Amino acid sequence: MDIRELHWMMDMFQSIDVGVVVVDRRYTVQVWNRFMENHSGVRSSSIIGNNLFDKFPHIPVDWFKRKAESVFLLKSRAFSTWEQRPYIFKFKNYRPITSPAEHMYQNITYIPLLSPSGEVDQIGIIIYDVTDIATNKSELERANTKLQSLSRTDRLTQLYNRGFWEDCLIKEYARHKRTNEPCSLIMFDIDHFKKVNDTYGHQAGDEVIRVTAQAVRDKVRTTDIAGRYGGEEFGIILIDTKRDGALLLAERLRQHIESLLVQHEGMEIRYTISLGIAEIGSQLGDHKQWLEQADQALYRAKESGRNQAIVYQSVPESDINETVANDKQSTG
């Protein structure tokens, strides 16, 4: 190779748009190309001959050495991707306008460099800037997550929509069949909701529904599954809860909503809810029967004067001994 070819290769080596670093077994830097100078702010003259970790203490030393030692020992390449570790060298992202990333995402290739004796005394480290790929994938994942959330969330209440909530109900029914763990279902709706709409307007009705949904979020546990079943009707699946525990929650929710004063465009609105409760049982043939039992209890709560919670009892009509959380007869 003549001097002109060598000059051409060195110029290409310095101009290439990837980082190139060579270290020996003591991690002393032997090569540091212009890409590394530009992004690190460290000139080759000040790092060549020095320990890599002394100059870059943020490098995860133990992790880095495990990668490098495998290359020295096995004489084969190793790789790391931005998904395993976003970066090895903490370089600022130099395209902050077009990319939201704060730091450069990097893929790394570790290459064994054979000596004339066939030993690996040095390894080459190639640093690829994959910030665009990483951020595009991250943006896509965030968009997919948001789309998934939108597909299962009711827009008005931000609770689960009916389709996703019913899927959860089916899964909980199947889980009970498999584990025999208790689970209870609450179905409730807003009393005289049509009157609210007719008196105050549909936007006021929407506000009442939003306030109700917030009350549900305030009272349920993180393990409970709440959804808007349709219109002014809501459902709550209470995991690992028997009917007595479900009744306590239903009563707390009922009392809380009864105490609320919804204000909308200068109007003050008070309202109540009626609730039906059904604990899952071995006699059920499918989730629909479970839902039907909660609906029957809700119907009895409405027929018995509203503003109360009733637990479904699977006994003959003449022997019904339903639990009424509030026996106040209300015409509201």
What does this structure look like?
There is one protein chain. The protein is an alpha+beta fold. It folds into two domains: 3-138, Beta-Lactamase (2-Layer Sandwich), CATH 3.30.450.20; 156-319, Reverse transcriptase/Diguanylate cyclase domain (Alpha-Beta Plaits, 2-Layer Sandwich), CATH 3.30.70. It is 43% helix and 21% strand. It is built from eleven helices and twelve strands. The chain has helices spanning 3-15, 34-40, 44-47, 52-55, 61-74, 131-152, 162-179, 193-200, 202-219, 243-259, 287-303, and strands at residues 19-24, 29-32, 78-80, 106-114, 120-129, 183-190, 225-230, 233-239, 262-264, 267-269, 273-279, 309-311. The strands form three sheets. A five-stranded antiparallel beta sheet has the order 2-1-5-4-3. It has a five-stranded mixed beta sheet with strand order 7-8-6-11-12, sandwiched between helices. Strand 9 (262-264) and strand 10 (267-269) form a beta hairpin. The longest helix has 22 residues, at 131-152. The protein is elongated and about 95 Å long. Residues 316-332 have low confidence and may be disordered.
Tell me the β content: 15-25%
Any idea what the CATH architecture of the largest domain is? 2-Layer Sandwich
Please summarize the sheet with the most strands: 5 strands, antiparallel
The fold-level CATH name of the largest domain is Alpha-Beta Plaits
Portion of residues within helices: 40-55%
